[in-house]
Design goal:
- The protein is globular and about 50 Å long.
- With 124 residues, the chain is an all-alpha fold.
- It has five helices and no strands.
- The chain is 65% helix and 0% strand.
Protein backbone atom coordinates (compact mmCIF):
# COMPACT_ATOMS: atom_id res chain seq x y z
CA UNK A 1 0.00 0.00 0.00
CA UNK A 2 2.73 2.47 0.96
CA UNK A 3 4.84 1.58 -2.09
CA UNK A 4 1.83 2.17 -4.38
CA UNK A 5 1.31 5.59 -2.78
CA UNK A 6 5.00 6.45 -3.24
CA UNK A 7 4.86 5.38 -6.91
CA UNK A 8 1.74 7.47 -7.45
CA UNK A 9 3.33 10.48 -5.76
CA UNK A 10 6.51 10.17 -7.87
CA UNK A 11 4.45 9.75 -11.03
CA UNK A 12 2.31 12.83 -10.38
CA UNK A 13 5.28 14.96 -9.24
CA UNK A 14 7.34 14.01 -12.30
CA UNK A 15 4.50 14.76 -14.71
CA UNK A 16 3.78 18.11 -13.04
CA UNK A 17 7.40 19.25 -13.01
CA UNK A 18 8.13 18.11 -16.57
CA UNK A 19 4.95 19.76 -17.79
CA UNK A 20 5.83 23.05 -16.09
CA UNK A 21 9.38 23.10 -17.45
CA UNK A 22 8.32 22.29 -21.02
CA UNK A 23 5.56 24.91 -20.92
CA UNK A 24 7.94 27.67 -19.81
CA UNK A 25 10.74 27.00 -22.32
CA UNK A 26 11.01 29.72 -24.97
CA UNK A 27 9.58 28.62 -28.33
CA UNK A 28 12.99 28.94 -30.02
CA UNK A 29 14.94 27.18 -27.27
CA UNK A 30 16.14 24.40 -29.57
CA UNK A 31 17.31 26.88 -32.22
CA UNK A 32 18.69 30.01 -30.52
CA UNK A 33 21.89 30.35 -28.53
CA UNK A 34 21.51 32.83 -25.69
CA UNK A 35 23.02 33.23 -22.24
CA UNK A 36 21.05 32.70 -19.04
CA UNK A 37 19.68 36.01 -17.65
CA UNK A 38 21.93 38.25 -19.76
CA UNK A 39 20.60 41.51 -18.26
CA UNK A 40 20.73 40.48 -14.57
CA UNK A 41 23.43 41.77 -12.21
CA UNK A 42 26.46 39.42 -12.10
CA UNK A 43 25.79 38.06 -8.59
CA UNK A 44 22.13 37.34 -9.35
CA UNK A 45 23.10 35.78 -12.68
CA UNK A 46 25.66 33.43 -11.08
CA UNK A 47 23.30 32.44 -8.27
CA UNK A 48 20.67 31.69 -10.90
CA UNK A 49 23.11 29.60 -12.93
CA UNK A 50 24.14 27.60 -9.84
CA UNK A 51 20.50 27.06 -8.84
CA UNK A 52 19.55 26.07 -12.37
CA UNK A 53 22.36 23.52 -12.54
CA UNK A 54 21.48 22.01 -9.16
CA UNK A 55 17.86 21.68 -10.25
CA UNK A 56 19.02 20.14 -13.53
CA UNK A 57 21.11 17.53 -11.71
CA UNK A 58 18.17 16.61 -9.50
CA UNK A 59 15.86 16.28 -12.51
CA UNK A 60 18.36 14.13 -14.45
CA UNK A 61 18.71 11.83 -11.40
CA UNK A 62 14.92 11.62 -11.15
CA UNK A 63 14.68 10.84 -14.87
CA UNK A 64 17.21 8.04 -14.57
CA UNK A 65 15.23 6.61 -11.67
CA UNK A 66 12.00 6.90 -13.66
CA UNK A 67 13.62 5.02 -16.56
CA UNK A 68 14.04 1.92 -14.41
CA UNK A 69 11.59 -0.92 -14.97
CA UNK A 70 8.68 -0.86 -12.58
CA UNK A 71 8.93 2.85 -11.78
CA UNK A 72 6.10 4.91 -13.28
CA UNK A 73 6.89 8.16 -15.06
CA UNK A 74 8.35 9.77 -18.16
CA UNK A 75 12.01 8.83 -17.69
CA UNK A 76 13.63 9.89 -20.98
CA UNK A 77 11.59 13.08 -21.23
CA UNK A 78 12.57 13.90 -17.63
CA UNK A 79 16.26 13.36 -18.43
CA UNK A 80 15.92 15.64 -21.47
CA UNK A 81 14.40 18.42 -19.37
CA UNK A 82 17.16 18.01 -16.78
CA UNK A 83 19.81 18.23 -19.51
CA UNK A 84 18.19 21.40 -20.81
CA UNK A 85 18.87 23.00 -17.42
CA UNK A 86 22.50 21.86 -17.10
CA UNK A 87 25.52 23.81 -18.36
CA UNK A 88 27.77 21.00 -19.55
CA UNK A 89 29.99 20.66 -22.64
CA UNK A 90 28.12 19.13 -25.56
CA UNK A 91 24.72 19.78 -24.00
CA UNK A 92 23.32 21.81 -26.89
CA UNK A 93 24.34 19.15 -29.42
CA UNK A 94 22.85 16.32 -27.34
CA UNK A 95 19.60 18.16 -26.59
CA UNK A 96 19.18 19.14 -30.23
CA UNK A 97 19.83 15.56 -31.34
CA UNK A 98 17.11 14.29 -28.98
CA UNK A 99 14.76 17.12 -29.94
CA UNK A 100 15.10 16.21 -33.64
CA UNK A 101 13.46 12.85 -32.96
CA UNK A 102 9.89 12.89 -34.32
CA UNK A 103 8.43 11.14 -31.26
CA UNK A 104 10.03 13.72 -28.96
CA UNK A 105 8.70 16.61 -31.06
CA UNK A 106 5.21 15.09 -31.00
CA UNK A 107 5.37 14.74 -27.20
CA UNK A 108 6.55 18.31 -26.64
CA UNK A 109 4.18 19.82 -29.21
CA UNK A 110 1.19 17.88 -27.91
CA UNK A 111 1.86 18.94 -24.35
CA UNK A 112 2.24 22.62 -25.27
CA UNK A 113 -0.91 22.50 -27.44
CA UNK A 114 -2.92 20.97 -24.60
CA UNK A 115 -2.11 24.00 -22.43
CA UNK A 116 -2.53 26.61 -25.17
CA UNK A 117 1.18 27.47 -25.39
CA UNK A 118 2.82 28.37 -28.72
CA UNK A 119 4.46 25.46 -30.53
CA UNK A 120 8.20 24.91 -30.15
CA UNK A 121 10.38 25.54 -33.17
CA UNK A 122 12.80 22.73 -34.02
CA UNK A 123 15.81 22.59 -36.33
CA UNK A 124 15.18 20.86 -39.61
Amino acid sequence: MISAAIFLLIFVASLASITALILFLPTRYFIDERPFWPDAPPLVRWLGIIGKNLLGLAIVALGIALSLPGVPGQGLLTVLVGLVLLDIPGKRRLVRMLARQPWMQRSISGLRARFGRPQMEFEK
